[in-house]
Specification:
The chain is an alpha+beta fold. The protein contains six helices and five strands, in the order βββαααβααβα. It is 35% helix and 14% strand.
Amino acid sequence: MPYTLIPTTLGTCGLAWQGTAVARFSLPGATDAEAVQRVAQGGKFVPETEAPAWVRALVARVRRHLAGDLQDFSDVPLEAAHASAFQHGVYRLTLAIPAGSTRSYGAIAAALGAGPAGARAVGVALATNPWPLLVPCHRVVSARGTMTGFSAPGGIRTKTRLLAIEGAELISE
C-alpha cells in the first residue's frame, strides 16, 4: 500500500491509500519515523510529487487545515471495509461535527441508540480511528466538555492543539 509524508505546521503527518481511498492517516508524532511507522505497515513510500492527483489535493487540504484555513473532510473517500457497523455509525456522526464544535461521547452513543452506557464503546471506536483529523475524533470530548483521552500521537496536547486551531471553546479541569 503506498504512503506519503506530509510536512505541516504541527509536524509530519502520514497518509496511506488503497486505490482511490485513504487507508490510514497519522497525526504528527515526536519524529518523522513515528509517522512512517503508523502509516507504512510494509507499504511503499511515494513522494508527494509522485502521488495521484487526489492524494496531492488532499495533502494540500490537510496543510491548509492545520494552518488555520479550516477544511471539511467529509467528502474524502475512506477505506473502511474493516470497520464494524457500530464503528461506521460513530465515524459518520463524528464526520458531521463541524470544525470548532465538539460533541460528547455520550451524545454520539445516544444518537446511535446505545444510550449513556455506550459512551465507552464510542471511545473505543474513536481510539481505533485510522483517520484522525479526517474523521475528527479530536472533536469528541467528555460529558462536561473537558479534554479526555486521545490515542493519537501527543495525546490530549494534540487534541487541544487541533481544537484551538479550529477555534473551539476549550474547557480544562
